[in-house]
Amino acid sequence: MRLKPLWRDYWSAQSSPQHRDSTAEFYRRHAAELTLMMGAPPPTVLELGCGDGALYEALGFDAVDYTGVDFSPAMLEQFATRHPDARLVLGDAADYRDDARRHDLVFSNQVVQYLDKESFGRLLANASAMLAPRGAVVTASVPCRALRLRYFTGEYSGQRTNPARNAYRIAGGLVGDRIGRWYSFAEIDRLGEQFGFRSELYGSIYYPYRFHVRMTRDGY
Fold it and tell me: Is the whole-model pTM more than 0.90?
């Protein structure tokens, strides 16, 4: 099953990733958190679901051989306006593949939540084929299934309400979850293993209901 048309129709028309805080300071701090996990950017980077390039400079991707992929023309237009020298490709994160290039890092942030396991599997298969021998796949900000209920009761937003209101929030979230797919640690491990990856999981500072994943091949 491919990305649901609902998500595709919505995001293809957006020119911003609509993060909860769009200030330069927020992106700097979020990038600092991600850098703690994956270190400085390696020589070649492929970003899947690059959006408008909100993290491009903050992560230092402007200083390396970078390729950004997104299916939203509006997002890429915003990206290209701010960074005309960046290599940008209109394409689907799950299906993008370029057999002519190898990358030391295949990166995505808040993207996998819009993919079911089949689509995520295709992304990993393609990433494996495009990865340099000692490269890594970093999937950042994945919603944690074990924390889904706590998210919908408002625990992480500081908006806890009375039991009746909580029930309403939970029911609404379960029926029409705007976050997308919530993954378990075990699902991530199993998906990685299918493509020869070993997964390392890290908690998120700014999004406590999310986690980050760094996948590498055995021995690296």
Answer: no
DSSP per-residue codes, 25-74 = HHHHHHHHHHHHHH-S--SEEEEET-TT-TTTTTTTGGGSEEEEEES-HH
Which parts of the chain register pLDDT below 50? 1-5, 15, 164-176
pLDDT digits (tens, 9 = 90+) for 49-76: 999 999 999 999 999 999 999 999 999 9
Q: Which residue do the tokens 């924390």 mark?
A: 147
